Request: fold
Amino acid sequence: MKKHEISGKKSAQSAPKKGALSTAEQLGLREGQSLELLKALHILTRDGAINQDSRRKLKQVNHLLQFIEPLLAKVQSSKGSVTLVDHGAGKSYLGFMLYDLFFKSITGKVIGVEVRDELVARSRELAAQFGFKGMEFLNLSVDASNTVLPKEIDIVTALHACDTATDDAIAFALSHNAQHVVLVPCCQAEVAGALKAGKASALQNNPLVELWRRPLHTREFGSQLTNVLRCLQLEAHGYEVTVTELVGWEHSMKNELIVASKGAAHAKSSAKRLNAMLDQLGLNAMRPRFFTPLLEKEVA
Ligand SMILES: C[S@@+](CC[C@H](N)C(=O)[O-])C[C@H]1O[C@@H](n2cnc3c(N)ncnc32)[C@H](O)[C@@H]1O
Reply:
């Protein structure tokens, strides 16, 4: 991939010519955002160049930060500290940028959960290098982190966490009473697999099966359905949910941003609708995945 110089041959930190945009301005960086950190994360090269992929990544994460920032502020003002867990952290771009911009000046922790040991080791090194004492990295699956982390977590994020890792992140958020959940789901194959398995019998009596009869449609419909079920599940557990498109992700189909914030009561109607959908689509086997608080008639 061709590298694009930000400021001619000069380094990212050289002073811009009079009237010229600084490197930070050209990159659309936030005030105070560290160029050194971006270099250490390999978003910028050592001499301040950036390629198209990195530019996109930077734009994506910076855009996502705008959604997370008000949530951090809310938790900070109500509790005085914030604990955020980032599931499927990968290279922890999100965690590091969040820490750099916000957590350096507030009391709190950013905990990255990631299964790949080399990524965890690198993130630990980076956090030590930058003196980010409130960052921790767990070399665990989302599921396994459930019992290791404290019972109360304020914010849970999962950015392109693979397949069912997003669902595990939701289950984690629910069991840790998270106030806010921010998800950009990746492809999920489980629901499509269940749709496929039930296709033959469903074809007999449900014309809507046409929505997922062909393999490509099974995958696409399965993916959309998964996110719909996730939203209903969060609502059923008392979250207010918004779904938007994440600008900057134009190149990807995986650009749905789900932000859920704990509201007042559990929404029984969402639980009912979720279970009715599973029933009508022949997906009752997926009830453990999309579990809801028990309805009264189920408790009785
Ligand atoms: C597509 S990458 C996204 C990384 C990062 N969130 C980002 O957006 O740059 C997904 C990451 O999730 C990790 N992962 C997949 N399944 C996981 C699981 N069950 N528990 C923890 N991490 C998982 C993968 O190893 C990978 O690093």
Summary: The pocket of S-adenosylmethionine is lined by residues 88-91, 93, 113-116, 119, 141-142, 159-162, 165, 168 (CB under 6 Å). Strands lie at 3-4, 50-51, 82-87, 108-113, 135-138, 155-159, 180-184, 239-245, 256-262. The two ends are 62 Å apart (CA to CA). The domain at 24-186 is CATH 3.40.50.150 (Rossmann fold).
